[in-house]
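Recap quiz, item 2
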Amino acid sequence: GAVVSQHPSWVICKSGTSVKIECRSLDFQATTMFWYRQFPKQSLMLMATSNEGSKATYEQGVEKDKFLINHASLTLSTLTVTSAHPEDSSFYICSASDYGGSLNTEAFFGQGTRLTVV
Amino acid sequence: GESVGLHLPTLSVQEGDNSIINCAYSNSASDYFIWYKQESGKGPQFIIDIRSNMDKRQGQRVTVLLNKTVKHLSLQIAATQPGDSAVYFCAESRNYGQNFVFGPGTRLSVLP
């Protein structure tokens, strides 16, 4: 299947700082990328959907000014957690899809980023 | 909407037995479903998918069954192996892949 690379795989940061997480589609053009958050022993919760070249669509309850999403190219989307707090500590996962392309409708997931805010 | 839970339901099966993992989905308009496997600390991995115009689809050692009448999805794993131990999520979407909503997940534990 197609490969989605997420970086970093884990990060520890101090409260008040910002952290950027990258999501790259390595062998296909991702017209749409999704960002999820997963707390321990819980399911994935969709945070936002981003289409290349346009603003991300955020799910209800997700602060767009705190979780900045940029999808500037067909192979890269970034999630920046601004002014991070300990409650932002979580597992963040991206997925990418090529709707209308050869990949049909399947979304491929990155390996996730474990964020710990201290 | 999203599904959350503090404790994942757990299914324990003996190695070599068949496993059946169930999922109740919420939206009758959902037309595309995927089963994902997630190992600890990793992102979900695609297992098998099914569209709403089908009620059964088979892969290698896995079968997905869809019952639209009762909004129920199941994943059957034949001859379960230790490597199958993971958390399994079903995901539903409308418009064939837009905006997936994940189920709460089931932890599969394979006993030796």
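DSSP finds no helices and eleven strands in chain A.
The radius of gyration of chain A is 14 Å.
End of item.
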